[in-house]
């Protein structure tokens, strides 16, 4: 009897340890994803925020005279879609930092309202980042290819460095958006698997 | 004793009825939101999918001759961002119909994997629709205002009906995206409030 009781006791401790270990590993995943989304959105905002390129372009002012070269500048805030992407990434970065602190403070999950609030704000970040990526992506694609129907000419043949840097920022933003997406999936999965 | 047992029995039935009533009202909310998202995304896809406008524009071919009028057409599939919005809304509409059927079939929530799958697919619809709205919104805004830095001229002063119809489709898409957003919020809330 004694040995049986001991066995059951050990079993209880073992099962309890497993539950705590599983909860810790999920909380660890959450922290890693939050840190990743912070770093990626910060990098995306900085890479696009410092994006500026000046090139000499030849312009014909009078048809009887040869064309003259004048400097032309491309800057991130000349297009509202790129401004939106920088602002969205900055908001996501700030929120990731605050939510990381809140998650670490509420690691045992005792304050339910914090968990609900963070879940909803994570979802808002998904919507915000995906809409900003869509906007900047559409304008970036137009810059690469142009469109004959609306007579919008491509500009990336001139400002190649500017376009590459914008594409890099878009890639980083997409990775940050996927990190927030995974945070919402993780929260849903954790809630479903709750005993 | 007998009356006490009876009382407790009634209390149990009452509490059980309240839980069932609450679950039904939440399930009702889910069905209404799914039906709304179906109707809104279908309307958005149709409104943009039939969008076409032909206008006579005057073009100067030879400077010594007066300008001539030629027909110019604006169609939804001339811009890839608008094609993306139509495709995204069609996918969302098809998914809303399938998920509505699955939700009605799994009203008691016994098949957990269906609930998890629907939660994740709802989230994918949020990401898909918001990115499409961002893309089409950015191109639509460029059509309304143009941009002097990249020399892209506004086109909405000519194709006013086309632009208004695109704006209406964007509004409907945004409402559908909000419906999917609320479905994810509702699922999270339900899981948190689960006994």
UniProtKB/TrEMBL annotation, chains A, B:
Casparian strip membrane protein domain boundaries: 24-179
Subcellular location: Cell membrane
Membrane topology listed for this record: Multi-pass membrane protein
Main localization category: membrane
Name of a matching Pfam family: CASP_dom
Any single GO CC term annotated in Swiss-Prot or TrEMBL for this entry: plasma membrane
Domain of life: Eukaryota
Record InterPro entries: CASP/CASPL, CASP_dom, CASPL
Keyword terms of this UniProt record: Cell membrane, Membrane, Transmembrane, Transmembrane helix
Residues annotated as transmembrane: 31-50, 81-104, 116-144, 167-189
Assigned protein family: Belongs to the Casparian strip membrane proteins (CASP) family.
PANTHER family per record: CASP-LIKE PROTEIN 1U1
Quaternary structure and partners: Homodimer and heterodimers.
Protein name: CASP-like protein
Lineage: Eukaryota, Viridiplantae, Streptophyta, Embryophyta, Tracheophyta
């Amino acid at each position: 009897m004694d040995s049986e009781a001991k066995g059951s006791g050990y079993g209880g401790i073992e099962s309890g340890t497993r539950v705590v270990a599983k909860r810790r590993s999920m909380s660890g995943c959450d922290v890693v994803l939050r840190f990743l989304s912070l770093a990626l959105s910060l990098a995306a905002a900085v890479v696009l925020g410092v994006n500026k390129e000046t090139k000499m372009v030849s312009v014909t002012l009078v048809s009887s005279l040869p064309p003259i070269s004048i400097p032309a500048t491309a800057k991130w805030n000349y297009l509202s879609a790129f401004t939106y992407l920088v602002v969205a990434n900055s908001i996501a970065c700030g929120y990731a930092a605050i939510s990381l602190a809140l998650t670490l403070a509420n690691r045992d999950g005792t304050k339910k309202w914090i968990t609900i609030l963070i879940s909803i704000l994570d979802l808002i970040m998904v919507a915000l980042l995906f809409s900003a990526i869509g906007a900047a992506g559409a304008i970036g694609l137009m810059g690469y290819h142009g469109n004959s129907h609306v007579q919008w000419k491509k500009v990336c043949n001139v400002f190649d460095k500017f376009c590459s840097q914008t594409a890099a920022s878009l890639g980083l933003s997409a990775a940050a958006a996927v990190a927030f997406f995974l945070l919402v999936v993780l929260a849903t999965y954790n809630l479903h698997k709750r005993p």
